[in-house]
TrEMBL record:
Protein name per the record: 4-hydroxy-tetrahydrodipicolinate reductase
Pfam family, one: DapB_N
Catalytic site: 136, 140
NAD recorded as keyword: yes
Pathway where it operates: Amino-acid biosynthesis; L-lysine biosynthesis via DAP pathway; (S)-tetrahydrodipicolinate from L-aspartate: step 4/4
HAMAP family recorded: DapB
GO molecular function: 4-hydroxy-tetrahydrodipicolinate reductase
Record field: catalytic activity: (S)-2,3,4,5-tetrahydrodipicolinate + NAD(+) + H2O = (2S,4S)-4-hydroxy-2,3,4,5-tetrahydrodipicolinate + NADH + H(+); (S)-2,3,4,5-tetrahydrodipicolinate + NADP(+) + H2O = (2S,4S)-4-hydroxy-2,3,4,5-tetrahydrodipicolinate + NADPH + H(+)
Broadest EC class assigned to this enzyme: oxidoreductase
Documented EC number(s): 1.17.1.8
Amino acid sequence: MTENLRVAVIGANGRMGAAAVAAIGRADGLELVAALGRSDPLERLLETRAQVVVELTVPDSSEQNVRFAVQHGLHAVVGTTGWDAGKRTALAGLLAQNPGVGVLIAPNFALGSVLATRFAAQAARYFDSVEIIELHHPHKVDAPSGTAIRTAQLIAQARAGLPPAPDATEQAMPGARGAVVDEVPVHSVRLAGLTAHQEVLLGSAGEQLSIRHDSFGQDSFMPGVLLGVRKVASVPGLTYGLDGYLELDS
């Protein structure tokens, strides 16, 4: 009989954390062994013999939590934002010292969102202009969202070598044209009643393409979380983006 994979959740009291606790608790082949709040001691991960840690806290504590997991041989699936290039490079260095340990950092766990980002990046090189609008609930602590930043980065890679998007703006109030991520404008909306939504607008003379994804609840993220939990141990090192587990290029 195959033993269940032992999983712990850090950030279990938040909305994403609570949803992950419930999803893992009812998933075949997984056993929830710990549900930690942000202030609970990380040593509980070792006491419960967790094998995979799902990290869903806040940027201020996420890096410390993940480094603890890696240093103790635990795989980690991370949904917390704030993992910039410098932090990812440092984590990759730590993982090199702990071979066999896998970490997935996913800006978004919704499979539809991951696919929409990939489709937008593929389309971007065929259009003159690209802008991103991301819309989230008003309790979100970061702007732009990690998903929007990831989308802009992939779009910029796809458009490398192309002329900049046309924009004759000479005067603008601060923020009117949004944040600029790798030369891609990103507009953030924070509105009561929303969950997580993103639209990529692509335009050329005479046509426009809109690629939009909407998450209406935390349950939309759970298939991606479970995919990450089940696969992270088989992919040593650092993987940035759930698309790295989807075999989209095969």
